[in-house]
């Protein structure tokens, strides 16, 4: 078996989990599927058996070769060699597809950002991630895992943790457990906002953990408002509130009030 720790190659060997992933993906005969990181092709074969077309996106030429041999009798499989993060989805000609992937953990965050960028083309993604990463995505306000990244993903995507997977299901055995998550892009944006400004406000809130949000918006590194911001109704009611307790609706209200009361930046 080839293995390159640097690009995070841990392989699934548990047949039961494999079945659970394939069944979670609920692939129909007309579906176009992209698999990221085929490894030795264990999941690719299951996907190729059901999907109309399978695109295999893999960075390691040795695995492409190996999986090509395994799938030599299939006519519905196309291999795309390279780093998926360099947006290899652009090489998929079909307008819509599903993604199924057991990917290296260190690319999870970047991959989620890419899924957001390509959200109009992606129906649904079934993704194996570190359990901690899944927890981070589903973190609730006020919990220690809550972050601006959780809010960023919630703005664009619906994410659900389907089941956890013990580290014993992989070889070489990783140090931590995993989880399979289902990601669906929201059909329309939650709110109409200038996204750059909206997420500057959100990131500010998490810059000063344990600081009042108002202070973060007056002194933070992403955006600094005039002290007039204290007078908007939200801060009249919640002068001391910390950003890490707030949900997207709260940030939307703050955003709207900043615009409505024309609070200048300094
Ligand atoms: N899906 C297989 C392999 C998982 S290991 C299984 O479940 O057994 C992760 C795979 O992702 C490896 O084959 C690795 O080479 C590939 N990979 C790692 N980084 C990648 C990247 N940036 N783009 C595409 N594939 C990548």
Q: Can you put this structure into words, describing what you see?
A:
With 266 residues, the protein is of the alpha/beta class. The protein has two domains: 5-185, Rossmann fold (3-Layer(aba) Sandwich), CATH 3.40.50; 195-261, rRNA adenine dimethylase, C-terminal domain (Helicase, Ruva Protein, domain 3). The protein contains ten helices and nine strands. The chain has helices at residues 15-25, 42-50, 61-70, 108-117, 131-137, 148-156, 195-207, 213-219, 233-237, 248-260, and strands spanning 11-12, 32-36, 53-58, 77-81, 97-102, 122-130, 157-165, 170-171, 178-185. The strands form two sheets. Strands 4-3-2-5-6-9-7 form a seven-stranded mixed beta sheet, sandwiched between helices. Strands 1-8 form a two-stranded antiparallel sheet. Helix 6 (148-156) runs antiparallel to helix 7 (195-207) and helix 7 (195-207) packs across helix 8. The protein starts with 10 loop residues before the first strand and ends in a 6-residue tail after the last helix. The model has no long low-confidence stretch (mean pLDDT 95). The chain binds S-adenosyl-L-homocysteine. S-adenosyl-L-homocysteine is lined by residues 7-12, 36-39, 42-43, 57-60, 63, 83-85, 102-104, 107. The site of S-adenosyl-L-homocysteine has 24 residues, from strand 1, helix 2 and strand 3.
